UniProtKB/TrEMBL annotation:
One of its GO terms (cellular component) is plasma membrane. The gene is lacF_3. It is a multi-pass membrane protein. Residues 83-298 form the ABC transmembrane type-1 domain. Gene3D superfamilies: MetI-like. It is found in: Cell membrane. The chain crosses the membrane at residues 28-50, 86-108, 120-140, 169-194, 215-240, 279-299. Belongs to the binding-protein-dependent transport system permease family. This is Lactose transport system permease protein LacF. GO terms for biological process: transmembrane transport.
């Protein structure tokens, strides 16, 4: 009996620690980050949303006007044009960046000669700032001394290529610069994913006589789903905040043909000194991101939980 009691006491003494105190050092170390996220990011977001319902001008003030700022926002042609441009730029940039990036990565993954050289050349544009990229492509697309001038100098006098001066296609001129800069980085992300594919899969595909393109589509790409999700998030974050390229290439012109939401927010807050309208526009940008992220998060994490 005494031995049993001693054993019982020793078992009780070695009870596992309470869940709250597990990894206590890590939890204490994360407190500054959590406080920053709560008070800076979430706090500033709430502050912006609240002031979007006011008629703040040069300085923020709690003079509520209901949904007036939003009604004025969606009744402004400039804002509607910027939303249309963002949709066109976003869809094209998303598709082309993924396709071009994956294609380049697949070509480099074939163990070609001078791979490091090609990889450096293709990644180099990403090292440039968007302002530099915009100015470079503004020069290249200038009809007086850019591509159009060069081709006409070769004898094709009727050749016309001036997207930055054509209101109907100006957003595609900006898209060219964005794709040129971002595709190299997506290529590197995809190449890292391809290098993680087991070589035995390729050997098995060759033994079974499966064509290379079918191996990519039906085997490799499904295995690289996390890599594609990462690339998708990176591209989307760049799309929503596109601003530098527009300012460097067109400054929103011709007229308002190349306006984007980020430029609209900046102009309203710092040039027009209309904080209420700028807050309303930035809130709508935040809402668009949330509308995209919630379904993705539900499918990504909710599906795993159900599984």
């Amino acid at each position: 009996m005494a031995i049993a009691e001693i054993q019982g006491q020793s078992t009780e003494d070695v009870r596992p620690p309470v869940r709250l105190f597990r990894n206590l050092n890590a939890k204490i170390a994360s407190i500054p980050m959590i406080m920053t996220a709560v008070f800076v990011f979430i706090g500033c977001t709430v502050w912006t949303i609240v002031h979007s319902f006011t008629k703040s001008r040069l300085l923020p003030k709690l003079d509520f006007v209901g949904l007036d700022q939003y009604e004025r926002l969606w009744g402004t042609r400039r804002w509607l044009v910027s939303i249309e441009n963002l949709a066109i730029y976003g869809i094209c940039s998303l598709v082309l960046s993924l396709v071009i990036g994956f294609t380049l990565a697949a070509l480099l993954d074939r163990k070609i000669r001078f791979e490091n050289t090609f990889r450096t050349i293709l990644l180099y544009p990403f090292a440039l700032s968007f302002i530099v990229t915009g100015l470079v492509w503004q020069w290249i697309l200038n009809p007086d001394f850019g591509i159009q001038s060069v081709v006409r100098g070769w004898g094709w006098e009727s050749f016309t290529f001036d997207p930055l001066y054509n209101p109907d296609i100006v957003i595609f001129g900006i898209l060219i610069a964005g794709i040129w800069q971002g595709s190299g980085f997506i290529m590197v992300v995809m190449l890292a994913g391809l290098r993680g594919i087991d070589e035995e899969i390729w050997k098995a595909a060759r033994v079974d006589g499966i064509p290379t393109w079918k191996t990519y589509i039906f085997v490799v790409i499904p295995m690289m789903r996390p890599v594609f999700v990462t690339a998708l998030v990176l591209i989307t974050s760049g799309i929503v905040k596109v601003y530098d390229l527009v300012v460097a290439q067109t400054s929103g012109g011709p007229g308002i043909a190349s306006e984007v939401p980020a430029k609209y927010v900046y102009d309203k807050m710092f040039q027009a000194q209309n904080l209420g309208q700028g807050f309303a526009a930035s809130t709508m940008m935040l809402l668009s991101v949330v509308i995209i992220l919630i379904p993705w998060a539900y499918l990504e994490f909710g599906g795993k939980k159900r599984g």
